[in-house]
Amino acid sequence: MKKNLLGSIALLLLVCPSNAQSNKSTENVNQIWLGYFNQTRLNNKFGLWTDLHLRTKENFIDNFSASFVRLGLTYYVTDVIKITAGYAYVSAYPADAHKKITQPEHRPWQQVQWHTEYGKKRMMQRFRLEERFRRKILNDSTLAMGSNFNFRIRYNIWFDLPLSKKGIVPNSMSLVLNDEVHINFGKQIINNYFDQNRLFAGLKYQVSDQSNVQFGYMNLFQQLAAGNKFRSIHTMRLFYFQNFDLRKEGYQKK
Q: Containing domain of residue 78, as a range?
């Protein structure tokens, strides 16, 4: 088990894009990401997914770059494997390409997620498919009719490594390592099939059996649509997670 875990961590580091692209144009930006996540299990087979996000634009506290509302319905194949489908609404606030308007995006999404435990250590993996409909822009202050469209697939691997001998229990701390790679595809994608990679390291405080807070540093390395331009976003990330189970107390896992 330990060898498998170490191998997965090595894979996590390998998929992170190298900054050998530095001979090309790379923009460096500092941001803060705030997020709230809720997964509520309704019964043996179904649950609800909610997550909300707000991101700053630059210099950590200057303006806002985007906000997200993501909702989904989850089907539990087993207690550790689940499939979710849902919808997200994204607001991309004024930026260089649209300095006076907010660009909306409609984003249906589907994912499969599974959890593995290695003693007191935990690992989560997830594949997510997104269909992105981003409203076209006419000029700095006007939206155009219609939307640009592309697919994007995301692979996320996440490790929770407890710092207490008791494991992951209320009032304990864990080390969290997380990597997620995003790949674009579709007719409108020409130069940037690789979209971005998000590498995160931080600490988790387990508030209770149902909730935890995670804080740390994330580097987001992104290839822009031009193909030879990149963005490296240095991010302080603060996420709050809640997991509720509304099944009867006497329910026995199957």
A: 2-17+39-243
Which has the closest alpha carbon to 148: 110, 189, 182, 108? 189
The one-letter code for the residue type at 23 is N
Q: What per-residue confidence (pLDDT) applies to 24?
A: 80
89: its two tokens: 């609404």
Mean pLDDT of 107-132: 97
The pTM for the full model equals 0.88
- Which CATH number do you get for residue 147? 2.40.160
**Tokens 């595809």 found at:** 185
Report how far residue 231's alpha carbon sits from residue 194's, in angstroms, rounded to the nearest whole number.
13
- Return d(Cα 156, Cα 239) in angstroms, integer: 16
Q: Return left, alpha or beta for 80; rule: phi > 0 is left, psi -120 to 50 is alpha, else beta.
A: alpha
Rounded distance between C-alpha atoms, residue 196 and residue 97, angstroms:
19
Q: Please indicate, yes or no, if residue 228 is contained in any of the structural domains.
A: yes
pLDDT of residue 213 exceeding 50, the answer is: yes
Q: How far apart are CA 198 and CA 126, in angstroms?
A: 14
> How is residue 55 written in tokens?
């991101």
Mean pLDDT on 60-89:
97
Answer whether residue 209 is part of any domain.
yes
The answer as to whether 70 is a domain residue is yes
CB distance 207 to 213 below 8 Å: yes
Domain count, the chain: 1
**Does a structural domain hold residue 12?**
yes
Helix/strand/coil for 184 = strand
Residue 233 has pLDDT above 80, yes or no: yes
